[in-house]
Write a structure and sequence with these properties.
Length: about 100
């Protein structure tokens, strides 16, 4: 798995407006080739559940929009934190 945390960062957005207990960080970055991606991370362990739910929500959206010719972004990388660790879950999408 490539380390996508070490790429050039163009913009970082922090958000706890929807749920103060689960703050998120969205990092908009660019690889050396120039392609852009967004990395969504929880800032606290409590936010892991939201990040970990995104692949399943994508599948539901794909099924809902399947007959409407609407594409849904598929994650390019996903990391699930384990309960026993201090790690945070993250997910990355191409832009």
């Amino acid at each position: 798995m490539k380390d996508i945390h070490s790429k050039r960062v163009d913009y970082i957005k922090y958000n706890s407006a929807e749920s103060p207990n689960m703050p998120l960080r969205q990092r908009f970055s660019r690889r050396k080739k120039g392609d852009k991606f967004v990395l969504k991370e929880g800032i606290t362990k409590e936010a892991n559940a939201h990040i970990e739910s995104l692949p399943e929500k994508r599948k539901l959206m794909e099924a809902f929009f399947s007959e409407r010719n609407v594409s849904v972004l598929e994650e390019m990388q996903f990391h699930r934190a384990y309960e026993s660790s201090d790690a945070l879950s993250y997910i990355a999408y191409p832009l």
